[in-house]
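Support reply, case 0932

Customer input (verbatim):
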Amino acid sequence: MFKEQNVLVTGGTGMIGRELISLLLDQGAIVYVASLDEGIGLPDSVIHNKVDLTNFSACLELCEGMDYVFNLAGVKGSPKMCKEQPADFMVPMLQFNTNMMEAARRAEVKWYLYTSSVGVYHPAEVFREQDVWKTFPSKNDRFAGWAKRIGELQAEAYKIQYGWDRVSIVRPANVYGPYDNFDPENAMVIPSLIRKVFSDDTLVVWGDGSPIRDFIHARDVARGMIHMVENKVTEPVNLGSGTGVAIKEIVEVIVDNCEFSVEVVWDKDKPTGDKRRVFDVQRAHCRGFKPEISIKEGIKETMDWFLENKEIIDMRYNAFKQ
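Our regenerated output:
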């Protein structure tokens, strides 16, 4: 499907983007990447553009001549930043999501993929696609959550007004893998624990390890994205395991992959969060998609990548802090 096709990936230097690019290149696509950074480490055959997607003219130029557009662009930050600088999350996301979909529509691309988020959901034990509009996003994620919801509504509005029914929407669960964010202040569960186990003599984990969360490897997310575009799926689709895994099991897998003794301390005075939060993935299964990478092999791959790149990760983090 993608052989000799011009494919644009926004946010392509991120964790999912790099996996997606690899899969597209395997299919013979001509891959273009748009990001705010320099695109270091991308394959030589990839055409990289350093560009600000909040600039609509830049988005129009990027989409010109493209056959397919995968919009993976996002804004990352800590919970503290979410609380104190919500505009820095919401406004740019609204701008580049709106710009990219409108530019793709004007360019008459064959298909467009929009990356939504678990943030669109209200807290629940099971997240079902059809329940989104019955509730509001979590108070802790309401600015980014609403920005992602607006992107989904934009696709619906285009279908109604223009008959432009060429948009796939995916909602990934908790994504992990190589190129994850291992920043000690902002990292999510898996990268945070991996960094800690190689930094301290004792691995201190908040809570008792009982909460269950839904994790999916970045390569499986990329596979899911391609699958939905290839099959022209236009309804929002959850990408996750559908079963979830306890934080205690995550810790055990990480410890088992260490070649040294690790003392684990459970800080039960710290909050544990909701007991269970997993995706309903029946819609993905009905569309013919299931993840392939187990949590054990995925964590091992991520740990190996971290160790191979630890010096570079530390250097970039220290430079950012200065």
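We compared this against your earlier run and they match. Two observations from our side: The chain has a mean pLDDT of 92. The chain is about 40% helix and 20% strand. Please reopen the case if you see a mismatch on your end.
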